[in-house]
Amino acid sequence: MSRPSVLFPLFADIETLEGIGPKAAKLLPALGIERPRDFLFTLPYAVIDRRLRASIRDVALPATVTVEVEVGAHVPARRKGGPVRVFVRDAGTEFQLVFFHLKGDYLAKQLPTGQRRIVSGKVEIFDGLAQMVHPDHILRPEEARDLAEFEPVYPLTAGVTQKQMARAAAGALARAPALAEWIDPALLAREGWPGWQAALEAAHQPKAAADCAPEAPARQRLAYDEMFAHQLTLSLARTAFRRGKGRASAGDGRLQKRVREALPYKPTAAQERAIAEIAADMGADKRMSRLLQGDVGSGKTLVAFMALLNAVEAGGQGVMMAPTEILARQHFDGLKPLADSAGVALDILSGRDRGTERAAKLKALASGDLQVLVGTHAVFQKDVDFHDLRLAIIDEQHRFGVEQRKELGAKGIAADVLVMTATPIPRSLALAQYGDMDVSILDEKPPGRTPVKTALISSGRYEEVVAHLRQAVAEGRQAYWVCPLVEESELVDLIAAEDRFKTLRATLGEGLVGLVHGQMAPADKDAAMADFVAGRTKVLVATTVIEVGVNVPNASIMVIERAETFGLAQLHQLRGRVGRGAAESTCLMMYQPPLSEAAERRLQILRESEDGFRIAEEDLAMRGAGDLVGTAQSGLPRFRIADLDRQAWLMAVAQSDARALLATDPGLTGPRGQAARVLLWLMGKDEAIRLIAVG
Ligand code: ADP
Ligand code: MG
User: Fold this and answer.
1) Ligand 2: distance of its center to the CA of 12 in Å?
2) Which pLDDT tens digit goes with each residue over 141-179?
3) Cα 518 to middle of ligand 2, angstroms
4) 266, 296, 301, 552: which to mutate for ligand 1, most atoms within 8 A of CB?
5) Radius of gyration of the chain from its Cα atoms, rounded to whole angstroms
6) How far is CA 570 from CA 114, 330, 412, 541, in A?
7) C-alpha 579 – ligand 2 centre gap (Å)
8) Which residues contact 539 (CB under 8 A, 6 or more apart)?
9) What is the pLDDT of residues 232-254, one digit of tens each?
10) Are the C-beta atoms of 621 and 602 separated by less than 8 Å?
């Protein structure tokens, strides 16, 4: 399979376009332009109306105006480096053209006194006089037709001009072939979208500001093309992943029943729903690829354990992998009582297991005596063999990207996969990022939680915060103290954390304050965590390593220093560490004044809401998709045209449409399927082509 020849001209060398030479070819990659195709998808963001008017008198200034004028007197610069002025008169009034730093006889040639010219440019009032500084265009009346009535404004990079961009874009447009339609005809009709070629033309030749808005039909269509290609790729990946597991893992519920009887609470409706969705998926003979998304404290652990029991009931094994030692240990501690109540053999394997102990665990795993394994990445090391692995659960998705997901497959682990994430992300992003997975959402929290009291406190009130802490510690409560992210450097974070640790230890007392950070030796880290969990230390100074998952119910105070430097989602995660026990919890967000408007709004949202999904939506709205999720590691693609904030609804349409198309035509061989293949090539989704089902 190779690229269809109709697309060749669009993938030719960039220098084959008129007006693009070796110099521009070097500069254009800064705009993401490497081939003629890229010009098609680099759209103007504004338009200049150059329609000829009778007079500047008819226009509200300042404005860009095009008028025919009679050239009057030239007034030389009064001092060196000063402006040269040329009086001109249009049909209604007189004004001035102003030029700085002119060389030679440019003016005399361009604007001979007594002749008529068409001038186009921005007219402003300066000292009560209307003037056009450096007109964008000066033409003879007979050349009027050379001036496009509407001039698109493209993004630029240093050394490349608007003229060049427009010319090259026009050249690329001329190469855009007529292609068969890949969009569902019903959708196209319902939205009133133009065909592909027509959409490109309209998007590159806007006639009003509205034509450049994400709501313009042509823009929407092109954005949809991009999303559709992306969702097709994800759907193909999903189908390839799900293909051929061959064995259904249907539990008989006997172990789950024991756990339910031992639970001190009733699962929430959301937990029940997720448990059932997972069971159905595991019970089918396709491979499961599912995301379990739930805010902090929504009870993902129970859902995960029920899934593991499914695997065990079906006669197999399950594994749960956490990103860090601390979290793996905590999962183990949390799961152990549940496993005991079900009579299931559970153990933990980490990078620190060595020698005979490790060998014994591996042996039990290989024989099937060990039924559920919890651990870090160590659980997937080469020498770890399972007797019959049916389910792999991966906790905390945002440190475990698409690449790692692929790796699992590459290791020949053909088990069902469940990924858990505690980072609520907006639906459009979730679809873009995890569109290859099915999703179960825990959108409900167990009842009886007291909301966390959240306060903003200026750093000037540090002493008050410490006094509050001292009081709380005296009452037997525990607190986290999160140190600022000073820079993107762990070393700097570390120094800040160590300093804070020393000062707090000095004020609160020896032995009461613990410290944990990413640079510590694993054993020290565990010891520090264990001290805090056991209540030996009362205050835990930490960098953001405690951000995910850590659960200490007795901790009811969270102090965050320089809260304004953290992202909304991160603050929400941190705050989620408290409010897990019976006591009323407090989150003190300290900030260094003055607070920027944006930072103030962010912190305000946190004060108003504890709903992770709402917070995520607000974060997206305020920061835009690019910032919200670190694109590099998150697997979130960069879209050229699609705007995940303002065209979010399109992503869901694209996903269901992509899945529907593949359901009816998995090999993409029908007429629409063929067209969709061309779209994939056009969008550079070459890797997706390889995933198309053969035969
Ligand atoms: P997370 O989704 O953050 O991983 P956990 O699974 O750690 O949440 O659950 C948080 C706490 O809520 C735990 O102490 C757990 O025992 C408790 N919990 C879970 N489900 C329920 C429920 N349905 N009712 C009451 N408490 C629950
Ligand atoms: Mg958890």
Assistant:
1) 50
2) 999 888 889 999 999 999 998 889 999 999 999 999 999
3) 19
4) 301
5) 32
6) 68, 20, 34, 17
7) 14
8) 469, 473, 478, 479, 480, 481, 504, 508, 512, 513, 514
9) 998 888 887 777 666 788 888 89
10) no
Q: What angle do CA 256, 257, 260 make, to 5 degrees?
A: 85
Closest CA to 316 of 381, 257, 245, 267: 245
Indicate the residue type of 461.
R
381 C-beta neighbours (distance < 10 Å), count? 13
DSSP 516: E
Assign 11 to helix, strand or coil. Answer: helix
Which amino acid would we find at residue 276?
Answer: A
CA-to-CA distance for 14 and 25, rounded, in angstroms? Answer: 7
Q: Which two tokens stand for residue 25?
A: 């070819």
In a 13 Å sphere around the CA of 53, the CA atoms on its Cβ side amount to 17
Residue 118 has a CB neighbour count (10 Å cut-off) of: 22
pTM value is 0.71
State both tokens at 118.
């068409």
Which residues, 6 or more positions from 55, have their beta carbon under 8 angstroms from its beta carbon? 67, 90, 91, 92, 93
Determine if ligand 1 sits within 6 Å of the CB of residue 315: no
Q: 163 is written with which tokens?
A: 């003229």
The residue type at 41: F
Starting from the CA of residue 445, give the closest ligand: 1
- Hey, is 541 helix, strand or coil? strand
**Which residues, listed in sequence order, are joined to residue 292 by a DSSP beta bridge?**
420, 440
Token pair in block for residue 499: 């300093």
Taking the CA of residue 576 as reference, the ligand 1 atom at the shortest distance is 3
Ligand 1, atom 9, residue with closest C-alpha: 299
Contact 311, 427 (CB under 8 A): no
Residues above pLDDT 90, as percent of the chain? 51
Provide the 8-state DSSP code for 692: S
* Tokens 């905390």 belong to residue: 396
**Is 422 touching ligand 1 by the criterion CB < 6 Å?**
yes
- Locate the ligand 1 atom nearest the alpha carbon of residue 442 and give its number: 2
| Lookup: tokens for 472 | 């709380």
Q: Which residue in this structure is represented by tokens 């529907």?
A: 660
The residue behind tokens 């009887």 is: 261
**Per the structure block, which two tokens stand in for 483?**
């140190």
Report the atom number in ligand 1 closest to the C-alpha of 295.
Answer: 2
**β-sheet bridge partners, residue 516:** 542
